[in-house]
Amino acid sequence: MASGEDDDPIIEEIDVYLAKSLAENLYLLQYPVRPSTMNYDDVNHLAAKIKPKQQRLELEMAMDTMSPNYCRSKGEQIALNVDGTTYDESNTYSVKMMDKQTFSSIQATTNTSRYAAAVFRKGELHITPLTGILQMRPSFSYLDKADGKTREREAENEGGDSSQDEAEEDAKAITVRFARPESEQARQRRIQSYEFLQKKHAEEPWVHLRYHGLKDSRSEHERQYMYCQSVDSSQNSELVKTPKEYLTMLMPPQTEEKIVQPAGPSNVLSMAQLRTLPLAEQIKTLMRNVKLMPFANLMGLLASGTDSTAVLRCIQQVALLVQGNWVVKSDVLYPKNTCSAHSGVPAEVLCRGRDFVIWRFTLERSVMRKEIAAVIKLPPEDVKEFLEHVAVPRVNRGWEFMLPTDREFTKKHPDIAHRQNMLWMGIQSKLEKVFNFTKEDFMPKNSPQPDPVHISGEQRLKMAQERAQASQATLKKELAAKKGQKGDCDVEPMDTSPSHIPNGSMNGDIDHANGNGGASSSSELTDFVRNIFRKHFVLTLSEFKRLFGLHLASKPAGQVVIQSMSDYMLQNTILHNNCRQIHVPFPAQTTLAADEQKVFGLWDSGEELDQHRRALYELFSKNYRIKRTLFQTRLSQEFGDVPKTDVDRLLKVNDVPKKGVLFTKHIPYPTGENCET
């Protein structure tokens, strides 16, 4: 020990003092996006403000617009987008150019008890504890202002029908609900929510500051407070700690750092934190947040090398199998002794209602919201929340299951699929007792089909050719009679060769007892076209086929005489009944099917609005979306002053929204486009 001490002699002793004058107001500012050699000491600081409780600081600094690195045209464009063309005292940039930028802070660490700033003078080391360590990063709040200006201008351009909207709002029924007393658990969840934290942070007022440069006299005066004001040895006791205690004070255990949790919503968990949990908790947390997930996606979120057998064992404890995908169980989302955040309904009632919704999706791809609400009898907000967990709304089709059926999983794991099916049978029996229904109430009412007959491929091809030829001949005769001709109609013949047989045919039940089935079916189709276009005016071929299928399904068994109808025959029938095709230029990147891009509209109905409707069709033939103002301008140019009531009636009849883009609901909107532009 003696020799070791001689090898490491004490060179100098330095007195250390603790300065407390700036202990509550000393911050360390870091600029992580800026190299240390390029500081902001010589930059003109225009303004500064701080929220002390949140330790949030904002600095406004001038930009050198005369620098060769500054793009003047870009700076003028940004100022124009933010402030517009008018000059106002509240403008962000007063010189019509981006001449300043704002830096906003975030906390680098939440615990600064181990950090201090020190100055050395005359053999003395003076230490001042830090209040916070802030990282200053550029703020892009001016982009939000530019977006707000853009939305305001669009709202002004589309404000032509505000009076009608107000009138419609006045006619809506008002539902009054009385809020139930908030439970302690609900209050805790509300306090820990992200929205509550954001609101609380916004309530703290800004404290405006005055910036003093590095060489300013006021800065030099404040730096003097970093030295201990009293150095009297009588007031400073000597260090009486043992070496081990002193080392512990210098390097406290790391467990103290884990106690401090970052301020944020309780349900936010990073992937790094998630993987520190047990496998069962990982799966439960993921399913509670995602609510619906294929098994392959779940394995992708877990750590690589995770045993799939263990995952399957854990997932069955917190989720149910629906169409090959896993849906989180209701009791995981709504634990006992909790209630709905919307209506205050107890968790037990919510679980029964949500189980019914999920059970319906085990039977079919789409459900109707009204049917669900009529059975479970829960508030509309809760019913909508149940559906949003697993489905998306579709026009004229209700709510469709969000994910495609994962048949690969059910084929790979038939034992799990069978076990889940048995579990659903038990859930179904409980739901039948609670809601007083049977499974047959929700099964599709299909007409009885005859016993299957095995027919060879050649026979099927021959039968299809004969049916197509018979249907075409019938259609020609009817069209010829309508035009008063005895010869051939002016109709393009259908190619019935084996390589050109239409694929998209609509098959109905054939009444073999009816000898004139072809004529009856053609007449019935013609009547249906006339009636349906008098009601809807604009339809895609896909929508027309769907409505025609519903029409056939509604007829009693044994009375359906419609034979196989190809897409070609349906289009011809539509075009020969006062309708025309509207060639809508859909975007090239659209994912619509071919029959969804074929749009037909009623051309001549015998009404005075026909010429106005044709103008609307012509606009849609040039662009797949237009605005109301453009349509009104077109009518004024061609037909003079058109009453607003006629315009509203035309748009209402054609199912065109009153706000945003004029587009009929019967035409599927292209994927990725926003209807309210």
TrEMBL record:
Positions with biased composition (Basic and acidic residues): 146-156, 475-489
Residues annotated as domain DNA-directed RNA polymerase III subunit RPC5 C-terminal: 444-665
Pfam families for the chain: RPC5, RPC5_C
Compositional bias per record (Polar residues), positions renumbered to this chain: 496-506
GO CC terms: RNA polymerase III complex
Any one Gene Ontology BP term: tRNA transcription by RNA polymerase III
Residue spans crossing the bilayer: none
Biased composition (Acidic residues): 157-169
Span list, region Disordered: 146-171, 465-519
Record's protein name: Polymerase (RNA) III (DNA directed) polypeptide E
Organism per entry: Neogobius melanostomus (round goby)
